Structures are given as structure tokens and as C-alpha cells.
């Protein structure tokens, strides 16, 4: 019998909503050991092993192909590796965890409304201020890709693992790339999203690891997807 | 000796024979100068590590920067020639992260044109060791800068257009924006002092430093400049000139003739940079040469002429050119002529094995 490994976010609202989503499709995920156990199961489906991981680890393991299926944010797939999006199949959108990865500048920068303004500002920032324009973000990969596409090369990333929106006020960076669902945290910190500053629209998705969809597992994938109403999501 | 070892030995002696100093910079280098010079785009290719204090180091990702930095530290200004052959380390989509590069750096040479000829000759000699008759792609940074200085447009647009040279999509987006009908409806006549006051108030309330980064005055001036720019459009004839020019790509003699015709039509004096380009063609022998008007590395320290050479497999085997602004960017106090090139040894070997 072929076994599939399904990774589910290990805590909080994300875990709850994921389990609700599967339950509404007739798949009840159990966690026999409670919140401290990282192994689970699906009722009536002994061929599916459930593992509880932090969402960022789910993204990493999907890309590596060490788990077969997992629920995580699209932003984490893009951020974890440049090869991330090619390494997974987006099987279904779960319609929660909606958030955008955006470029935001201080509201006082009244001359900067679009990415092309930012390109102008970045290009002579160094000659004016003796340093590169600094961008605080935890989304290093996404920022680099998006800025390269926008033709902006003259900047430095300052990695920020929390409270990114405070970076301009604390003098750590000039602008930010951050994730936001309503924009209210950014606005409260005097930051404004550029008009073309949405880099990625993210939400929670069910992904299959491309490396895992092998000949002998294909039937198991198809059977599972049929069961949860995602017909035809595995290419033959 | 196997064929591959024999070729490698010949390349080694070609590098040795460059008559300059054989440079062997350390394998472990400070990462900051690379980020400072080439930005995040190149930075993501580095193999990074940190020491106990948290300072970032990278495995040598190229030879040019350590060679040139060392040259400046030892007193720039004296003509110098360096050659190198050794491993470098970069994250790549395909192939191992460790691979070999060979190359030359000619610094502060009295005649920049002769120096570039030496570089081209070196690249051709190296390629012929591997039996490659290359396709050469030339780009004219100096030519484009000469055109831009003379083209009819408000001055403030010139650096904005220059900045996008070498990035086809960003350039095209800017030209499209300029071609669209001018939107002058929102142009209110704000006074600088009022704007500065307003911006200062916003910055203070957001807790931003008024001096660490962009200042209120800088923002206000650029805001007003933008409004002026929206009103002062680039003439349609100039936009057509830029589009026509950047689209020129093909056999070098045809391309240069097209550029001459374009220059005639728009009354631009491009004779000097065009003559320089023609002179260098002699060094390229029987190679097929293409001139691509929009081709330039995205780094603004390149000047004059840039080139790349490809083999039958299509991969870039050699790339280089003139970069007279590099030494200033790395701390030299005056512009210093510089040219050089780098060869991808593993790709050359793959080409020979075809």
C-alpha cells in the first residue's frame, strides 16, 4: 500500500482552519497526542500519515520533496527558494490566510507613488547619502526577484524578522517589503503601499511536492484529490 | 596529457604570458564590498558565511573586485596589468557552485583603446585554444551616452533614461510612459517652502529622522521636479529616436550604418564613438560580430565598449569591456581607465568537447 504524507500547520488559527477545510470535505484529521504531538492521522484512511509542522518548514520540505502534500502560504513557497514555485503543484486554494506582500514607503515621500519613482530615488540615493537605499524585509527572495523585474538594482536588504513596519522610524531602513492583509499596521506606522506595490497575493494553499508525484504514488494522489473534490489537479 | 589537460595547460601559459602580474586574491573575502558595488542582484549569487563576530564573508565570486581594490590600496594611477586563473564560487541554476574563471585586468593604461584591443586579443586567443570561433556581441555604452547627451529632451530625463539602459523591459516601460499623453491635470503650483513644511510634519509624526535618509527638501524638490517633468515631455521625435536606436541589432557593419543614418536624420554627432567601434573590429578577425544597441551590463560603471563571446552552444564564454568608472566607485579619487574580461573555463571545455 502506498502511503502519502500530509503536512498540516502545527498550531493556532492556521491549524484550526486547515483541519476545518479538510473536515468540510469529509476528511477528519486527528491529533491523538494533542498539541504536543507532531504525528496525526486521517480517520478511516490508514494510508495517509499526517505530520504537524510550522508553516515555513512545510514550505521547505515540500520544495525538497521529503513530504508529499502540505498546507502552507503561497508567500512561503516563493520565499523559501527561487525554485520554490517550480518545485510544487498548487492543488487547491483554501481561501483563508489571505495577505499581500507589498512595497511600502514613508507617507512623507509624496513624490514616490509607483515602482518607477522608487527606481529614480534608488538610482541616485548613493550619491546623495553615501549609502544605498535600505529595504527592511523578511522576504529576501521575493524582494530580489520583484526589484530585478522592476529594474531596480541599487539597494541593500536589511533582514528583519519582526516588526518590519517599525524599521523606517527606528532608522534601520528607508522603506519596507512586508506582508499585510488590511494595510492598517503599515498605515499606523506612517507607511503607504505603492500603487503598483503588490508583489504577491498570498493565501493558504494545498501543495503537492512535484518530486513526490511519481508513478507508484500517482494513483494515491488522484484518489485523495477525488475524495476532497480537487479533480484533475494532478497532470497525467 | 589528455586533450582537456593539454588545453588547460595552454590556457595557463596564455594567462602567464600576459606580461603583467599574476593575481591570486584570497578565497575568503569580505562580502560587504560586493553588495556595495553590485547590489542585491549579484549578492544573491554569493556563497556566504559569517565569522564569530557576525561579520559576513563570501567565497571569492570574481577576481575583478579584489584585484582592483588591492590596486587602489597600493596607490592607484600607475599603469598595471593583472591576469588570473582560478576557482570562483557562485550560486547557479545549473552546474556546480565552484568553477574556474580566467581573465585580465588592464588598469590606468595610457591608451584605453589599445588596452581594449589587448583584452579582445586575449579573449580570442583563449577561445582558439578550445577551437572556438565565437559569435561576438558588442554593445556601445559610450555610444548611447553620446546619443543621450545630444538628444533633444529636458535634462532631468537624461539620467532617468540612462539608468534603464541595459534593462530592456524597464526601458520600454519608461518610453511607453513617456509616449502616453501628458497628464498635467493634477499640476498645482505648490511652493517649495509649503511642501517642505508639510513633509517635515509628516516625517516628525511618523518618527522619521529628518537627516539620516531622504530629507524633506530632497523629497519636495523631486516632487516639484516630477510635476515639471510631467509638463515638460520628451519630444515625440526623441522618443522615436530612442526606440529606433535601441531596436538596432544585427551584423555589425549593417548596424553601424543604420546608426549613422539615424544620427544624420536627427543631426547627432556620433562620429567619434562609431569610429572607435570600427577600429576594434580589426581585432576580431573572422569571428561573426553583431552589434546590439541595447546591450549593456546593468552596472553603471561600464563605459565605452562592452562585449561577450559565445560558442556554438550559445553560452557566454567570455565577457568584458571597458569600465572607467569602476575604480572611482571603489574609492579612487580620479577616473582611471580600466578594461578587462573574464572567461568561463568550464563552458570553454564543454564547447571543446562538443
TrEMBL record, chain A:
One record GO biological process: L-histidine biosynthetic process
Species the sequence originates in: Devosia oryzisoli
SUPFAM superfamilies in alphabetical order: Periplasmic binding protein-like II (SSF53850)
Associated pathway: Amino-acid biosynthesis; L-histidine biosynthesis; L-histidine from 5-phospho-alpha-D-ribose 1-diphosphate: step 1/9
Record flagged with keyword Cell inner membrane: no
Position of the signal peptide: none
Record-linked Pfam families: HisG
Protein name per its UniProtKB record: ATP phosphoribosyltransferase
Family: Belongs to the ATP phosphoribosyltransferase family. Short subfamily.
Keywords attached to this entry: Amino-acid biosynthesis, Glycosyltransferase, Histidine biosynthesis, Transferase
Domain ATP phosphoribosyltransferase catalytic: 55-220
Entries under CDD domains matching the protein: PBP2_HisGL3 (cd13593)
A cellular-component GO term for this protein: cytoplasm
Name of the top EC class for this enzyme: transferase
Gene3D superfamilies in the cross-refs: Periplasmic binding protein-like II (3.40.190.10)
GO molecular function terms listed in the Swiss-Prot or TrEMBL record: ATP phosphoribosyltransferase activity
Automatic annotation (TrEMBL), chain B:
Keyword field contains Transferase: yes
Keywords: Amino-acid biosynthesis, Glycosyltransferase, Histidine biosynthesis, Transferase
Gene Ontology CC entries for this record: cytoplasm
GO biological process: histidyl-tRNA aminoacylation; L-histidine biosynthetic process
Pfam families tied to this protein: tRNA-synt_His (PF13393)
One of the record's GO molecular function terms: glycosyltransferase activity
Domain Class II Histidinyl-tRNA synthetase (HisRS)-like catalytic core as annotated: residue spans: 8-163, 227-348
Domain of life from the UniProt record: Bacteria
Keyword Glycosyltransferase belongs to the record: yes
Gene3D superfamilies: Bira Bifunctional Protein, Domain 2 (3.30.930.10)
Protein's name according to its UniProt entry: ATP phosphoribosyltransferase regulatory subunit
The organism of origin for this protein: Devosia oryzisoli
